[in-house]
Amino acid sequence: MTRFNLASRLKISHLLFYSHLLLVMWLVFTMSYNRYNSEWSTRISHAVELARAVSNPIVDLVSLSASGRNYTNIRLNNALALYASSDRLLFFTVQAQSDFSEHEYSFAWSRELGDAFRTNLTFEDRLAQQIEIEALEQRLNTAGSDDVKLNFLLNRGKELLQRIEEDMGHTKQYCPQFKRITAIDDYYLDEDNAQLLLKQDLRNVAGGEIILSFDATPLLNVKSDIQFQLLKEASLAFLFSLLLIIWATRRIVKPLKNIALQMNRDVKDIDFTGEPEIERKDELGVVVRSLDSLAKKVQLQIVELEKRSAIDSLTGLGSRFLYESVKADFVAQTRRQGKYLGFLICDLDNFKAFNDMYGHPEGDRVLRRAGLTVQSALKRDTDGAYRLGGEEFIVLLQTQSAEDIQQIAVQLCAQLEGLEIEHLGNPGHLVLTLSIGVVCAKGVDLDSNVSMDQIYELADKALYRAKDSGRNAINVVHWKNGKEVINE
Predict the structure, then answer these.
(1) At what angle do helices 6-67 and 217-248 cross, to 10 degrees?
(2) SS3 category, 106
(3) I need a labelling partner for 60 at 20 to 30 A (CA). Which of 43, 206, 335, 343 fits?
(4) Residue 77: how many CA atoms within 13 Å on its side-chain side?
(5) The pTM is what?
(6) Residue 456, number of CB atoms within 10 A of its CB
(7) For residue 19, how many C-alpha atoms fall within 13 Å in the half-sphere facing its CB?
(8) Helix 360-376 crosses helix 402-418 at what angle (to 10 degrees)?
């Protein structure tokens, strides 16, 4: 079977084509994802910069208050107004060290509360204040005390105790637990609580830090908008790619598959005449027309080669190739028509001696004359003569009787001997002669198990018997009911 190897290459091309489409889709989604990261990073950076701008005045105020451990300044109306000036600031907490003492400075502000409160107060601070109040009350009950001063200190102590209790309650109620922000990363977006946490260093000598919490709801809404927009773009890109695949499948891949199927057939069966691709005006149509032209050229070459291989160039008889291709059909045809099959193996007697004595050019000339003699024995279109090689010929006959087959064999021997071609190397005859092994078989006796190879073996044995009988002879074998009957 002769096939082009283009089919397998086209299959590989299909895989590469789909791979390229998948690669394009992957690139689209990758670009969308990178755009999302870039856009989102820009929005976060902008939000952080705004938060820093809002926090700078607060940092200045808090740093000054932390330096002198002043809790009064942070509770003044102008300070509270500063804290509340940014709608997005929800809360902040301060941890610092006084520049003039080892005391810790710590407080927080809550928009929900609307006030600032200390966050470092403990039960011991409360107890100490209560003890101080009790001491003032005892002094106030002592004769000769300065009642005005003691009452002032007592009222102030009670106010301070009330403030301590309120601040401790506010700390418990309004101070959230923040994620720890490292020095490397000075902000954190808490998406679960919709908060942007910003850490700033204080500017007093002892140092400290303030952590501010801003409402991140608008920022997260922007994130959702970005995600939705990019998802829409990616979906459109995916849909476009899908439509491109469908279009390419119908317009390119399917026709390529049809071409591959055609090219995978035996080259003699390739025919693009009825294929719609051959009428296309694009590059694929050019390819199909080129392939069709190439296939037709190859088919013509194959026909020419088969013609040449079917004819023996020296004698003009059928070649061994042609014999091998027709022998099975010849038996089947004879069986169907119920005629007699005649199988003749003809061999020139002592032909090697003829070549040795007269030379090969003369031997070739004699083979051509012998071929013409054998060809002359063919009376019907169904008959055939073939040169198997050297000086051996085969004649296939379909006749009405076995006698017709034997008569043709006798005629062949007589015609060749009548040419009177000198052959001194053929003892007893001194001219060129022919020996024939003949098999005669009636069609009804040729069942499906009988092959031409079996018949050839019988005829070959008959030929040897003819040679043994003195040459220029015929030996006939009749095939009847699955058995051979030798007729000398």
Answers:
(1) 170
(2) strand
(3) 43
(4) 0
(5) 0.50
(6) 18
(7) 6
(8) 140
Buried b / exposed e along 204-218 (16+ C-beta atoms within 10 A):
bebebbbbbbbbbee
Q: pLDDT by residue (tens digit) across 239-273?
A: 887 787 777 667 766 677 777 777 777 777 777 77
Beta-carbon-side half-sphere exposure of residue 215 (alpha carbons within 13 Å): 12
What are the distances in angstroms from CA 138 to CA 88, 132, 142, 143, 234? 50, 10, 7, 10, 80
Residue 83 burial by CB count (10 A; 0-12/13-18/19+): exposed, middle or buried? buried
Angle among Cα 345, 350, 356 to the nearest 5 degrees reads 130
Taking Cα atoms as reference points, which of 456, 455, 457 lies closest to residue 479? 455
Cα–Cα distance list, 203 to 35, 65, 197, 200, 235 (Å): 38, 11, 19, 9, 51
| H-run or E-run covering 210 | strand 208-215
The token duo for 74 is 């942070």
What tokens does 417 get? 């001997």
User: Tokens 């061994």 sit at which residue?
Assistant: 320
**DSSP 8-state symbol, 252:** I
Q: Are the C-beta atoms of residues 317 and 371 closer than 8 Å to each other?
A: yes
Round to whole Å and give the CA distance between 416 and 431.
9
Q: CA–CA separation, 286 vs 378, rounded Å?
A: 50
Residues 374-386 pLDDT 10s: 998 888 888 999 9
Q: Give SS3 for 101.
A: coil
